[in-house]
């Protein structure tokens, strides 16, 4: 551990914590009630708290390579547990899947699987992005390499939102009309954030004075009308 890192930790104790003592004290006494769950990439350049100008207590954050949400399965992994805890214990109602430009995971997913031979665990993890890869392979015309990685990054957000919906806590929250799903893409070249508009299926740059794009707005939905049938008897 270098001196710079040690210095920063000490500065947290001496200065940062002291400056925010009131906030930390409230959070320590009353616990957390974060406003949203964000599933983002581990990439060091994409810092959800920085993008959202978040304070401690604001965001429940899950970061992994490629902002991936494995579909619900047993045994459950860390992402599954994080999602369940955020919804069922913390009562989070907005879930954001956030991808980004120049993503190493998406480059890996885009390329020849043989190129990932030296990182077999990465290769296995990226299989959760297979749907996005196949969508791009089959539905997009000839793309340059850069365009392909960008298209794949956007389709990956769509695919991970679909995976999110396989999680029982998410499915139940959606049915009750309590949960909104969001798909974002941070462009670190342009310095803007795109949001997935569920109505059009397209990503649009988030702009002031324009409708905020939402992938799946909260709305109660039930497939069966059995409750109403019983009531009518
Ligand atoms: Zn990334």
For the largest beta-sheet, the strand count, sense and barrel status come to: 6 strands, mixed
State the low-pLDDT regions, or none.
none
Q: Give the class-level CATH name of the largest domain.
A: Alpha Beta
Ligand inventory reads: zinc ion
The rough form would be described as: globular
Q: How do the helices and strands follow one another from N- to C-terminus?
A: HHEHEHEHHHHHEEEH
Could you explain how this protein is built, in words?
This protein folds into 2 domains: 1-31, no CATH class; 34-232, Carbonic anhydrase (Beta-carbonic Anhydrase, Chain A, 3-Layer(aba) Sandwich), CATH 3.40.1050.10. 43% of the residues lie in helices and 16% in strands. The chain contains 10 helices and 6 strands, in the order ααβαβαβαααααβββα. The protein has helices at residues 3-19, 21-30, 48-51, 78-88, 104-110, 120-125, 130-139, 145-164, 168-175, 226-232; strands at residues 36-41, 59-64, 94-100, 180-187, 192-197, 202-205. Strands 2-1-3-4-5-6 form a 6-stranded mixed β-sheet, covered by helices on one side. Strand 1, helix 3 (48-51) and strand 2 form a beta-alpha-beta unit. Helix 4 runs parallel beside helix 9, helix 5 (104-110) crosses helix 8 (145-164) and helix 7 crosses helix 8 (145-164). The termini are far apart. The structure holds zinc ion.
């Amino acid at each position: 551990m270098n001196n710079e890192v040690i210095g920063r930790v000490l500065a947290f104790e001496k200065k940062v914590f002291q400056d925010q003592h009131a906030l930390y004290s409230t959070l320590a006494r009353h616990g957390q009630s974060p406003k949203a769950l964000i599933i983002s990439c581990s990439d060091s350049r994409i810092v959800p708290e920085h993008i959202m100008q978040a304070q401690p207590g604001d965001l429940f954050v899950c970061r992994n390579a490629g902002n991936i949400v494995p579909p619900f399965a047993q045994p459950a992994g860390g992402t599954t547990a994080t999602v369940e805890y955020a919804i069922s214990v913390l009562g989070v109602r907005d879930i954001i899947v956030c991808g980004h430009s120049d993503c190493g995971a998406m480059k890996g997913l885009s390329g020849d699987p043989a190129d990932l031979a030296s990182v077999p665990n990465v290769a296995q993890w990226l299989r959760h992005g297979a749907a996005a890869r196949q969508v791009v392979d089959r539905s997009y015309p000839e793309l340059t390499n850069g365009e392909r990685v960008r298209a794949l990054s956007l389709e990956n957000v769509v695919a991970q939102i679909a995976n999110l919906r396989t999680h029982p806590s998410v499915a139940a929250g959606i049915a009750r009309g309590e949960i909104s799903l969001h798909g974002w893409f941070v462009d670190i070249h342009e310095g803007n954030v795109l949001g997935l508009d569920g109505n059009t299926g397209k990503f649009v740059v988030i702009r002031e004075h324009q409708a905020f794009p939402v992938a799946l707005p909260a709305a109660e939905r039930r497939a069966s009308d059995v409750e109403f049938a019983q009531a009518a008897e």
